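Researcher: Predict the fold of DUF4190 domain-containing protein.
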Amino acid sequence: MSTPYNEQQQAPQYGYPQQPVQQQKGAGLAITSLVLGIVALFLSWIPFVNYIAVILGVVGLVLGVIGIWKSKRVMSIIGSAICLLAIIVSFVAFGSFVNEVDKSIQELENSQSE
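Model: Structure tokens for DUF4190 domain-containing protein follow.
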């Protein structure tokens, strides 16, 4: 007599059982903060686009700080630092742009008055 299909023996499985990979809480926040910081740092040098860089930097900084408190990861700290750097560079680039425009206007007014 033959055994039913459900009762047939299965071949032995070799190797270690695979367990699902568990990420720490806040890993997504750290990655998002890092990406936003890098994008904001690249955009912070462009005169009228650096407004967007400031917004991205602030959002990335907030997410990075939340990621630091949730997971205490190095990536969150690096992302927050890059976002802060992007905000500072944006303000410096905006200030130098305004300074150069002001100089150009002064030179133009001086040349027209002569």
